[in-house]
Design a protein that fits this description.
It is a single chain. The chain is of the alpha/beta class. The chain has helices at about 15-25, 65-75, 95-105, 140-155, 160-185, 200-205, 210-220, 225-245, 250-275; strands spanning about 30-35, 45-50, 55-60, 85-90, 110-115, 120-125, 190, 195-200. It is elongated and about 80 Å long. The termini are far apart.
Length: about 280
């Protein structure tokens, strides 16, 4: 950390861990402002960090202060862009179990930093600006419920991109299995060359990604009611799934994904209910 940087609002005993946090963030590619405040901030952020359109606020205290964490959590939930808040405390303080539970409930992170500069993430922060209510798990049979529970875990940790991608893989696998059963029963024909129908092969189905599956369900010459739902639903989620899978993170696409992901999760949930076992 440059010697020209001096923390004014950080107590002397916390300054070594504040500098250690700055060093770690810079090494991770963040651009930083120390003791930064703007008109819309609830108070001065000890460290304000930005990377890839995301805003990260680091607040330092000698102990966990739930009121301060709640203040920043409320601010984060009022933001429209990706926003994380992390409370930073010395590693040698005593941790109260109920405080840890409350920190998780608020969605803010908790990081302990020791005098050597080692950072230990005790609670991962969630993207406070993204508020999504996922469909309940009890709508599904046991096997799908187990898979969707992993999706809920990702969202619960704030990793909604990975949660969305995992949900896409679940519906892709279910749709492929359903289409394979139809192929085995000789029920799948699509337009071929010169307008002549052709049969889809099992080998083709086994190699189809989500978009190709959608195309088959849309063009089947004989459609079942669930096929039309799979056609429209898979086509709707596929563009965003591609961006997440390939980690395409332009600001325009990020805004689109954030605006769509909640509805996508309900689309996926409904498709999983409709696909025959």
């Amino acid at each position: 950390m440059p010697s020209s940087v001096n923390f004014v609002t950080v107590p002397l005993e916390l300054q070594p861990i504040a500098y250690a946090c700055c060093d770690a963030l810079r090494a991770a590619g963040f651009s930083l402002k120390h003791e930064h405040n703007e008109d819309h901030f609830p108070e001065t952020a000890t460290i304000y960090a930005r990377r890839g359109g995301e805003e990260h606020f680091y607040v330092f205290d000698p102990r966990i202060k739930i009121d301060r964490a709640a203040l920043w959590a409320g601010y984060g939930r009022s933001c429209s862009s990706t926003t994380f808040v992390v409370i930073c405390v010395p590693a040698d303080i005593e941790m109260n179990g109920s405080d840890m539970v409350r920190i998780r409930e608020l969605g803010v992170g908790l990081t302990a930093i020791d005098r050597t500069g080692a950072l230990s993430e005790l609670v991962a922060p969630v993207d406070l600006s993204l508020n999504i209510a996922l469909p309940p798990l009890n709508r599904h049979r046991a096997s799908i419920k187990r898979e969707l529970a992993k999706v809920h875990e990702h969202f619960g940790r704030g990793d909604w991109r990975r949660g969305f991608e995992h949900a896409c893989k679940i519906v892709e696998k279910s749709a492929r299995r359903y289409l394979a059963r139809q192929v085995r029963a000789n029920q799948v024909q699509v337009p071929g060359r010169h307008g002549h129908p052709r049969r889809v092969t099992l080998r083709e189905v086994q190699r189809m990604p989500l978009g190709a599956l959608a195309d088959v369900f849309c063009t089947k010459l004989i459609q079942h009611p669930v096929d039309s739902h799979l056609c429209s639903g898979l086509k709707r989620i596929n563009p965003d799934r591609i961006d997440v899978a390939h980690e395409i993170r332009s600001r325009r696409k990020e805004r689109r994904l954030r605006g769509n992901v909640g509805r996508h999760m309900w689309t996926i949930d409904n498709l999983l209910k409709k696909i025959p076992v």
